[in-house]
# Entry
Amino acid sequence: MICLLDLGTSKISAILIKNETTTPEVVAFSSVETSGIKRGSIINISSTAKAILDCINQIESQSNEKIKELHIGLSGEEISSTNSIGQVKITDREVTFRDIEKALNMSKTMKVPNDKTLLYAVPCEYLVDGQNGIKNPLGMNGIKLEAKSHLIHFSKNAKENILKCIRLASKSLSVTSFYFNQLGVAEVVLSEEQKKLGVCLIDIGAGTTDISVYKNGSILFSKVLPYAGDYVTESIALSLDISSSDAEQIKKKYGCAFSDIATEDMLKIKVSGSNQSISRKVLAGQIEHSFSKILRHCVSSLEENGLINHIAGGFVLTGGSANLEGMVDLGERVTKNLFKIGMPENNLPEKSAKLLKPEFSALLGLIKFYALEQDKEFTFNQSKGIIARVLEWIRTEL
# Structure
C-alpha cells in the first residue's frame, strides 16, 4: 500500500491505495482544512503539521493500517520550470538503455539558482541524428542522441519546511518522494487525444493557478501563478466589507462567474452585525472581474511563450474553482477559444466514485503518476536498479 498526500492551500488531503501498480483501489481517504499554507507555501509549520497529523490519523482509523511513508504532491509559488536538452554519442551506433539514461541525465545538468533544487524531469522527446518526434529511441541506429526534457524546480527552503512539518506531525513518518501535482492532474483529466492535439490545462485551486501545455503527447510548458480562488474570495470580502470566511461561503453558495446568466435575486448578508442585501448579479460581476484577471494572465503566459497557436484542443479547467457556475461561459469569452471543465475521468482507481470532482483531480492524478513512475525504465536520476543494469549489460556484451 502507498499513502499519497496533497498539500493544498485550503485543505490537506490524503489517500491510501492498495494494488498501486496493477489495479489501484482506494482504501481510505481524508481531507482536512488548513490555515498554515498560503499560495502553496507553508506559512505556519505547527498549524500545517497538525493538519497533516489529523489527515493521517483519519486514514489510519479508516484502514487499520499504520502509515510510515508518504508520497507528497505539491504546487506553489516556489515551483518553476524550464525546457532543456541533453546530447550524447550513441554507443556502437545503436541506442541502448545506457545511452538514453546518459542523455536524460545530461538534460538535467542545467544550472539553477542556489536556492532551487530539481524536483522532477519529464522526458518529452528524443532526437536521433537530428530526427525529432521520437518517443522511444531504443535500438535505433545513429551517431548522436538528444533528449529533450521539461525540468521542474522547487525551492530548497520550501522543501525543507515541508519535511519539518512531517517530522513535527509524527516522528514515525518519512517522505519517500515529491511530485508536481500538475503532472498527475494531466493523467486523469486529459485524454491522450487532447495531449496529442495540443491543449492548455488550467488548475485553479485556492492559492495557486497551475498552467501546463501539452502537444504531441508531451508537456511543453508549465507555470504556477500566485493567485486563484482565494484572490476571488478576498475581492468579495473587500468589496462587501465582510470576513474572508463569510465571503468564501457566499461565493460557494451563491457565486456565479458570468454575470450575464446570473439572476437578479437579492441575497441577505451580515455586515458588522447588521443585515444587508446584494443582488446576485452584482456579486457575479465581482466574481467575473476577478476570475477574468486570472484567465487573462493564463492567456498572456501562453502568448509570451509563443504557445497560443499550439492548443487546437483549447483550454481545460479543473480544480475547485471549476465548480462555479458560468466558468465555461467566462472562459470562452476571455480566451476566445474552446473551453471545457475537466473532470477526473481517465486512469482512475477502483472505489473512487466519491472523489470524481475537479477539486480532487490532483490527488487522483498522483495515483496514476506514481504507477507510471514505477513502470519506467528510468526514474528521476537513475534506472530501475541493478536488475535493469544487468539486463542492459547482457544486451550490450553478448
About this structure: Residues 280-304 form the longest helix (25 residues).
